[in-house]
Amino acid sequence: MIELDKIRRRAAEFAEYGELEMMVQYVNDVRAVQKRLADAQENINFINKVRPKNQIVGPLSTTCS
């Protein structure tokens, strides 16, 4: 959950991007966040697959509330 919160905060920073000269860095930042999010989704999928089906807690997701 900490990793998802870090990703959410990092993605929120994208709204502040506005310098045209920094566009290459912005693209690299977005790609890095997309990679971290994909890795988190893979971990969630693995946990949901191996976790016993009879647990009370529902499946994990990448959505933050």
What topology emerges from the helices and strands here?
Layout: H1 2-13, H2 23-50
- Percent of residues in beta strands? under 5%
Number of helices: 2
Order of helices and strands: HH
Poorly predicted ranges: none
Radius of gyration: 15 Å
**How many structural units, i.e. domains?**
1
Mean pLDDT: 83
Oligomer: single chain
- CA-to-CA gap between the ends? 11 Å
By secondary-structure content and strand pairing, the structural class works out as mainly alpha
Task: Determine the fraction of residues in helical runs and give it as a percent range.
Answer: 55-70%
The main β sheet shows up as:
none
The dominant shape is elongated
Number of strands: 0
Structure characterization notes:
The protein is mainly α. It has one domain. It has helices at 2-13, 23-50. The model has no long low-confidence stretch (mean pLDDT 83).
Quick rundown:
This protein is mostly helical and 65 residues long. Helices cover 62% and strands 0% of the residues.
Key terms for this structure?
65 residues; mainly alpha; 2 helices
